[in-house]
């Protein structure tokens, strides 16, 4: 998907039918450029949240020891700043083909199962200490 596809999707399905596609493309491009500018100015610790979509965050990767894949030679990799994306709950559930209701039910069952396992562990420990 490219910027033109996004602009067409916005025009067709999100109420921008009276705005020309190039204007929508320019607005989206300008928004991303503004985010880029803010990220470059603020660097480490910068966070940008898009509700119901996800969060972009800049983090610092510490220096580490790596290998050259071609020669196998060890080399130092310096620390650097990288941007991470964490999708929102709605996006994760949508990607996995579940409704939010189904996901909450499966989480609840998982918590109940975990609680049962914990009680079994506690019961075993108490039995051992009584002997």
Features:
131 residues, alpha+beta, 4 helices, two-stranded antiparallel sheet
Task: Give an overview in words.
The protein is of the alpha+beta class. It has a domain at 1-42. It has four helices and five strands; from the N terminus they run ααβββββαα. The protein has helices at 3-13, 21-42, 89-95, 100-130, and strands at residues 47-50, 54-61, 64-67, 74-77, 80-87. Strands 1-2-5 form a three-stranded antiparallel beta sheet. α1 packs across α2 (21-42). The longest helix is centred in the C-terminal third of the chain and has 31 residues, at 100-130. The relative contact order is 0.08. The mean pLDDT is 84.
Percent helix range: 40-55%
Radius of gyration: 24 Å
Taking pLDDT < 50 over at least 5 consecutive residues as the criterion, the unreliable ranges are: none
Assembly of the depicted chains: single chain
Task: Output the helix-strand order.
Answer: HHEEEEEHH
* Share in β-strands: 15-25%
What would you call the shape? Answer: flat
Distinct helical segment count: 4
The assigned structural class equals alpha+beta
Tell me the strand order in the biggest sheet: 1-2-5
Number of strands: 5
The main pleated sheet reads as: 3 strands, antiparallel
Mean pLDDT: 84
Distance between the termini: 67 Å
